Amino acid sequence: MKFRYLVTITTLLLSCTHSSIASTTQPQVFANEKSIVFENDGQKVAAYEGSIQVPENRSKPNSRIIPVKYIRFPATGKQAGSPIIYLSGGPGGSGIQAAKHPNFRFPLFMALREFGDVIALDQRGTGVSDITPECVSSHKLPATKVFTDSEVEQLYKKAAKECVEFWTQKGVDVWGYTTKESVQDLNDLRQHFKADKVTLWGISYGSHLALASLKYIEQYIDKVVIASAEGLDQTVKYPARTDEYFDRLQQAINQQPAAAKAYPDVKQLIRRVHAKLEKQPLALSIPREDGSEFKLLFQRSHLQGFASAMIADPDRAVPMLLSLYQTLDQGNTDVLMAILKQGYITDDPISFRVMSFAMDIASGITEPRLKLVNEQAKTALLGKALNFPMPQLNKAVAGLDLGDDFRALPQSKVPTLLLTGTLDGRTYIQSQKEATAGLTNLTQVMVVNAGHNLFMSSPKVTEVIKDFLKGNKVSTKEIQVELKPLLAN
Fold first, then answer.
1. CATH of the domain at 187
2. Residues with Cβ < 8 Å from 14, sequence gap 6 or more?
């Protein structure tokens, strides 16, 4: 059985309705680029599709060469600055897909062209830069029997070992898929664009990559814009801080009378439902499109996995999550069945993509942090589900971990803008402050009521980013976002 947890995105608040091809006067063209017309949100813009070739593992002289591909939107400003490279989260997200996705971040890609070429990057091993086959292991989680957290961990470790062997046989160097290698890809990209410096714009894991860049190639970084920051020793989040997130969520719920009446104590509700599932998992038959039924014993860890995926943003999946817990508490499985029919849990074998698999294991976790995570997980609402399969696969690939020197705080004077959502269910307020504590030229803006995917939560976010890129002192300390109803219809 394979978990396919829900992925949530923020609904775009700004949209473009005109259809015209934007152009620049005699735009510069770089090697390995071709002109394209990029279409999204009813708009057509002139752009360039390009790539560079990089070593898969720079520590090995005869390393395989892999592509790093991108789409470049030429600058529109008269005095354009350094190229602005968008760094997706995940790890494993595609920058090109972020630009292509309708009603998502495309308007921000367009707005930032005022300050330089904007690059939608597919990092090594992601999107169209991914030339490595998926590994489908021979291991499955049992669908109809009770399993423990320890048994899940052991199965995933066996699958990881099998997949490393599979990729190695295919000529893939798993040890090349690290954040440090991606940092060097960014420097190669800078040289490809013949730029003295680049500006980095990233979110979540993209901020992790940006922070690593400040550590290793600071002299080539002009400015940094990051949201929902994940520090270099924060691949695995503290479970207790997830509990603190639910306290903030409760405060938000209490602002809405109907929601407050329905959910007077969310944490107690969650604990109550988990206890019921721990005592008696639910035996379910889930209809499939072909007319067959998938038999599943739905357990506490399944629900913790769902919750971990659904808490990112308050305006999307959180209302459904609250309804899910409430109905299960009442003995009603209708909401659960509606979710399961979408195929988020299957009996497929455990499988991995090399980039998302290796990057997190390479970034790893310090021993003191791991000890605290394991201790907190014993009583925390979601246990160690938030970053699954880490730390379960910590050091599962010998020689891949980048070490504690990598995980030490970056120290930098590069101008950096940090945007933090107060209802972010994945990267937390205190953690983001800690992740950026070594940055002496930091501006932090709190986006009140926003979640993890906050870039398009308010037009004021775009205004703040533009002020920052203009070199102005950002006076805004807080942006208020309307809190959407938390009680599901």
1. 3.40.50.1820
2. 107, 456, 459, 462
